[in-house]
Each structure stands twice: as structure tokens, then as C-alpha cells.
Queue: 2 jobs
Job 1
Amino acid sequence: MRNLNEDTITQAVLARHAEAPNPRLREIMTSLVRHLHDFAREVKLTEAEWAAGIEFLTATGHITDDKRQEFILLSDTLGLSTLVTAMNHRKPPSCTEATVFGPFFVEGAPDYELGADLANGAKGDPCFVRGTVKSTDGTPIAGAVMEVWQADADGFYDVQYPGQPEHRGRGRIRSARDGSFHFRSILAEAYPIPHDGPVGRMLAALGRHPWRPAHLHFMIQAEGYETLVTHVFRDGDQYLDSDAVFGVRSSLVAQWVRHEPGATPDGGTSERPFYTLDFDFVLNPAA
Ligand code: BEZ
Ligand code: FE
């Protein structure tokens, strides 16, 4: 195969992949090469632009390590994560909707009793969260494992602080026999995604802001049910309609109710204003 030109190169590459032993890999690579070549043709990609693209991907790789995943951030900000989540979690409308996982989940967060304070010293106004985990027919789900994680009042997750070993603003609880859960934490606040790297430069070049509306992350697992990865978003947040990672769904927006200092739902008292959030989750029975 010689003398390939702009009209024949695509077919030549596809022919080279025709004998790939894994049919799914062949399908994916065929489509990828076709779209990649069509993209270059459509925008009439110059050599300087091609080099800028290579430099961008190189920088994305260089800043990525076990604590920072710039490629996921790229996928998130280009809407690819939301597309893949949506395609892979089609479910009945009565189920709680899924949204992006994000890069700040940590394996091995501590187990807490119901009612515990997951903030573990993270800065923020006190917040009491309660609700139930149910099936689509309303049956309570007992013992659902609920991973919770959130940013602090300054908009940072614990893992973003250098050398911070503790698990702050994250933990694992289990729903009670009646499917109910409750815990204490801190008020969720809006925060910018990490924007000091290539993805941040891309957003700036595109005239986009890096902010996410205030939210609380959940991953809920129960035997016999599809795992739910989602967030609850805070109603009234100014970024609900311009989330940097396209994760907001109306059904996931809830009220964080502000209370004046006084008696708290856990039977204590707060000398400062505090918040309550009520949210019920509905899991999809596994196929
Ligand atoms: C997050 O909500 O933790 C998140 C999601 C996507 C990108 C960055 C952060
Ligand atoms: Fe988040």
C-alpha cells in the first residue's frame, strides 16, 4: 500500500485493522479512525493545530498521576462522561438518576454509624442529611452501603490538601432496616474543578468557567440492585445551568433548608445557623 493520499488514507488504515482478533476492538477502532479522519478533513486541520493538539494531550498526561486524573477532567468538561453515564444507565423514570462519578472518590473511607458526623473536622456550616433508600415498588432497602463525599466550605475535597491523611467530608454508612439513613456533615458549596492545568487552559480559551454547582456525592450499593452513582445538587445555586461538567439533572436538585441557631435534628443544639437536607433514593432492581 503506497502513494496514499487524502482520499485513500482512511480506507488503508481501516483495512489494516480488518483482521484484529477482538471484534469489539475492531469495531471501536474502525469508528474512531473514521471520525478522527473526518474531523481533520472537516476543520481542514493545519500542521500547527495538529502539533498544538499533541502538545495539549502530552501536558494532560504529564499532570496526571494517582491523585490527579486530568484525562477524566477532560472527558467530563467535553460532556463525554455525561454521555457515557446516560447511555449506560437507562432506567425507569421512578429511579433516582445517575450522574458523573468525578475524580474525588476515595476507596476505603471510614465506616460510620447512622447519625455520625462525616465532616470529621472539614470546614463548613453544619448540615443534617436524612432520607430513605427504596426500590421502585416502594420497598425499603435495608443495609444499602452508602458512600458519601463532598467538598468543604472553601471548595476543596480532603485529597486536594497537600499531605492531608484524614478522611474529611467523606465516609460510608448503611441504611437502617426501614431503609432510612441520616448523618451529619457540612453545607455543600459551589467550587471550581481543578483549573490550573491543560483542561483549565482549554476552558479559559473557550470562554468557559470551571465552576460546579454545590452538590453532595453518593454511591449506593445494595444486593440485587444496580449501583447508583449520583449527586444531590443544592437548589438556588447560580451554576445549576452552567455546570462545568454537565452533570445537573432537575430530579437531583433539592432544598438545603437553613435554620437559625437552636435545636438540631440529632437532639443537640447548634450555636450557629445549620442546614437540613431531605432526599430519598430509589434504586433500580438488577436485571
Ligand atoms: C466532582 O464533582 O467531584 C467533579 C466531577 C467532575 C469533574 C471534577 C469534579
Ligand atoms: Fe464534587
Job 2
Amino acid sequence: MRVAFLGMGIMGRSMAANLVKAGHEVAVWNRSGGKDVEGARSAASPADAATGVEVVWMCLSDTKAVEGVLFDAGGVEEVLGEGMIIADSSTISPSATRRFAERVKGRGVDYVDAPMTGSKIAAESGSLIFMVGGDDAVLARLQPLFQAMGKQVFHMGETSKGQATKLVMNLQIALIYEGFAEALTLAAKLGVDVEKLLPLVQASMVRSGVVDYKAPFILKRDFSPNFPLRLMLKDIRLALDAAKESRVRLPGLEAVEEVYDVAAEEGQSDLDYAATLTLLEKWAGVEVKAATK
Ligand code: NAP
């Protein structure tokens, strides 16, 4: 298929590379330069990338970025044509997604929200899991692209239901990781050997994919970004906004937001969200590390 891919960040660049590998004709665009993808055409603007394509796929930071790329000067809207599909794998506001979809509908364009879970490693290996909002027939047309970038697609309902689902998913990741980090901090303070603790955690009902993914990085004290803290904080805020709009109380997530706020103030925004552990460690005066043998 002819695809424009907009946003060559941690996730987008690997996703676009997997589309090229699967034989699709890809044009890529990124706000800042120097992020080309081998085998893809580097476009000068979102409109340039989207000219003559069947599908425009976005993977951008936040709601404002998506709105700008679609509707600002040089944006995708300038070259929209009947029958095109816009697919958005950024995690953004569900209500803004409905607005964007409504605006392009008048031009005969279908809009699918397709946020994903799986982080950097899954983006590289083409094994992302997508949660999607949109029409069945449109999803069927996107199947070859989903296949090139991911291993599973969950159709959650009409446009915007993918984004709503993504907020519900990341709410859980934020709370699970906070629980894990607090447990590790107390364990360190009580002198429990983390290398003995981890297999026990994963053998018990406490086990989780979050622990599987994050524990090796923690043991290496590697907090370079797989999922930057600033983006997790954005998702926590999106979930809290959606909760407020629908009069739902989320006291646990509010407490976690405070931890992330302090971490951001302390300059951790561009580190992985796993770095919030170091804040707990600082407060407790300990460091989580494997016992010396
Ligand atoms: P990232 O590495 O920070 O990349 C963000 C991308 O958005 C970059 O291409 C950036 O361009 C672009 N951008 C930011 N503001 C912009 C603006 N105003 N106009 C145009 N482009 C703009 O982020 P990522 O990790 O790839 O994540 C992308 C999206 O996927 C986010 O919504 C995130 O929440 C979601 N997500 C991430 C993960 C993960 O594990 N990383 C997993 C699932 C979902 P520049 O290069 O010029 O800054």
C-alpha cells in the first residue's frame, strides 16, 4: 500500500521501517530532521508525505501535535482525498479524536484510532498489540499494515474507543509499576535480596508483564527511555481528565500523578518512567540492587 508515516520517534521510526520491510511504499516525515528510514522517501511536510497515499499513519507525542500535523499550514488536510484513511497510533484525547474524525469525514476520509501497547522492543520486532476504534470495513483495509507492525488487533468499537481503551490500559501500567517500585524500595530497606524476590513475585499471583519488562532494566540501573516519563505523565493526565468528565474518582491514579509531577520537576521527564523508582529510593535513603555475592 502507499502510506505516509508521520512521527519518527521511539515508536514511529521502527513502525515505519517494518512497513518498508513488508514491501509497502512509504513516505516518512518528522518535525526535526535527521530521522530518515532506509527505503522510505523523506518528505518535506505532512502534506508532502500524504500526497497521493492511501493511508496516513501518525505516531506523535500528544493531542496538540496530532491537531497541528493534520490541520496547520502544510498539514495533511491540504491534500485529503476521497477514500483515504487516517490512522493514529499516538495516545491522545478520545474527545479530540472524535472532533478530528468529524472534521475529515466531510472530505470522504475515514479515521481510525489505533493506539498500541508493547513499547520500544515490540515496535522494533513488529509485535505491537493495537486497540482500535473505527468501522469494520476500514479495519479490514488496514489489515496488511497492522500485520507488518503488530501481532494482534483488538477492535474496541467506533472511532475514539481505541483511545479510551488505551487510557484504561496505561492507568493499570502506571499503578502496577508504582506498586512494584514501592515494594522494591521497602524490600531494599528491609534487607530483602531483590534477586531472590523477583522469581518469587513471578511465581506468585503478583506476577505481571510490567515486572518482566522492567526488572532487567532496574537491575542494570538503566533508565534510558523505552517509554519516556513525560509521555506516561501525559497519559495519566488524559485518564484523570476523562475520569473527571465522566464523574469517576481515581484516588490511586491521583497519588501516582503526584509522584510523576515531582519526578518531572526533578528533571526525569526524558528518562523512562521506571526512573520514578529513584525518587522512592531517595525518600527512603536506599538503592535497589542485587546483593553482592
Ligand atoms: P517520542 O519518541 O517522544 O516521539 C514523539 C514524536 O512526536 C516525534 O516524532 C516528535 O518529533 C513528534 N512531535 C512532538 N510534538 C510535535 C509537534 N508539535 N508537531 C509535530 N511533531 C511532534 O514518543 P514515542 O515514544 O515514539 O511515542 C509516540 C506516541 O506513542 C505517544 O503518544 C506515546 O504516548 C505513544 N506510545 C508510546 C509507547 C512507548 O513505549 N514509547 C508505547 C505505546 C504508545 P521530534 O522528533 O521533532 O521531537
